[in-house]
Amino acid sequence: MDPTVEAELRARIRMVPDWPQAGVSFQDLTGLMADPVAFGQVIDAMSLVLGADRIDDVAGIEARGFPYGAALACARGAGFVTLRKPGKLPGEVHSVDYTLEYGSATLQVHTHSMGPGRRVVLVDDVLATGGTAAAGVDLIRRTGAEVAGVVLVMEIPDLGGRAVLEALGVSVHVLFTAE
Known about the structure:
Blueprint: H1 3-10, E1 14-17, E2 25-28, H2 30-34, H3 36-50, E3 57-61, H4 65-76, E4 79-83, E5 93-100, E6 103-110, E7 119-127, H5 131-142, E8 146-155, H6 161-167, E9 172-177
Parallel strand pairs: 3-4, 3-7, 7-8, 8-9
Antiparallel strand pairs: 1-2, 5-6
Helix pairs in contact: 3-4
């Protein structure tokens, strides 16, 4: 990424100490979405790191993976699939429980989403411990689809999430790391 663009994007990120609980430094990327130029630059950069490979679907993780994922899907001419918290999807779902740096959670996807022969990119805003993204990879694979890569805006490298995803055999693309 161009250093000037990266600096402009970083200026729109806010760190919130002790949220959602004491000891967690939350990287708030909502400022990137609030600025249409910055948001467009993020989506362009995400598309660029994926190259020219065929992408059939983009799966966004609730909640901040939704705007980035939907915009990337539109830019790539792909479908958009939501990976949701329990109780949000009607009908049959695949479900995965996972741990976070500050607790545990569950992620779900419709059983009829994606499927064999589909190449899917997983999108979220921040890579921390890798638990949420690993659950997303698991859900995509449960539908029979291929994980074409994981794309994230920011990585907190000290928490080891990249190693978790690479151990699953997926390509990890991050626009920049937390300072």
